[in-house]
Design brief:
Elements: E1 5-16, E2 23-34, E3 38-42, H1 49-56, E4 64-69, E5 72-73, H2 79-86, E6 89-93, H3 104-112, H4 120-133, H5 149-161, E7 167-171, H6 179-196, E8 199-203, E9 215-220, E10 223-229
Parallel strand pairs: 3-8, 3-9, 6-7, 7-8
Antiparallel strand pairs: 1-2, 1-4, 4-5, 9-10
This protein binds adenosine-5'-triphosphate (ATP).
Length: 251
């Protein structure tokens, strides 16, 4: 793993509401994610995990403190710069957020089309390859209604990864899945991340994911209360994932 810093957060505070209803959700957060790392963010409901994820992903404005994403300071950044940064990220949410009227292939094509200027033919090719990678090459033309929960989440993973994002932000991606499908989705994310050097920040309540993490951050009441090296960071041989490298959608 290289030591290139992808996300660097210093002294981040965040509030919701105004006047008497104003409430602080994050307190003095410091964290750093290196390129290719797989970090799990845990903590009780309401501890601030989604707030932190959305701030890191340019989905919410930074009010106080510093969030540097791929070398860009997000606080006070112009909207055009935030839009360009968002295009370099892949998002996966608990609810897969697929368009029900579009096929699996069309849904993944939309993941390419967030980047302007990609010709339709190339977008289609990349989307088909991404679906092949997640094991759905025989389901390209299925509507979400005809896919299982695990298959829908795999389509969402393919959509997040098809643009070869620098960082993937995932909010409870396995919450709606059974044990086997959850393990499949996580292994897939890890394999592709390791093969491409994609940085992953994943919010979960799912203890089964912990042994896959390089780093486990725990939030409580808006503060990081522990930062542990995960078991996966102790793996010295990452070649187990290399077979995915040769077949990633964008090489
Ligand atoms: N849009 C909002 N307006 C007001 N308060 C909010 C808003 N979003 C979150 N909060 C508050 O901020 C705190 C952190 O919420 P957040 O959703 O980040 O927690 P979480 O750890 O992701 O919770 P969960 O595990 O239940 O998803 C909570 O007290 C929540 O009520």
């Amino acid at each position: 793993m290289s030591n290139e810093t992808v996300l660097d957060i210093r002294g981040l505070n965040h509030w919701f509401g105004s006047g008497d209803a104003r409430k602080q959700a994050l307190f003095d957060i410091d964290m750093t994610l290196e390129r290719g790392s797989f970090t799990v963010l845990m903590g009780p409901s309401g501890s601030g995990k989604t707030t932190l994820l959305t701030l890191a992903g340019c989905l919410r404005g930074v009010e106080d403190g510093s969030v540097r994403l791929m070398g860009h300071e997000l606080r006070d950044a112009p909207e055009a710069e935030l839009t360009l940064l968002r295009q370099r990220l892949g998002f996966i949410f608990q609810a897969h957020n697929l368009h029900e009227s579009l096929t699996a292939l069309q849904n993944v094509i939309m993941g390419v089309q967030v980047r302007p200027g990609v010709p339709d033919g190339l977008a289609r090719q990349a989307a088909a390859r991404a679906l092949d990678l997640v094991g759905l090459s025989d389901r390209l033309h299925y509507l979400p209604a005809n896919l299982s929960g695990g298959q829908k989440q795999r389509v969402a993973v393919a959509r997040a990864l098809v643009g070869n994002p620098a960082m993937v932000l995932a909010d409870e991606p396995t919450a709606a899945l059974d044990k086997d499908s959850a393990a499949d989705v996580i292994d897939l994310l890890k394999r592709l991340a390791a093969a491409r050097g994609t940085t992953t920040l994943l919010v979960t309540h799912d203890n089964r994911i912990l042994d896959r993490a390089d780093c486990i951050l725990t939030l409580e009441d808006g503060r990081i209360v522990s930062s542990d090296i995960g078991p996966a960071a102790k793996l010295t041989d990452r070649n187990e994932y290399s077979e995915a490298a040769s077949s990633s959608p964008q090489g």
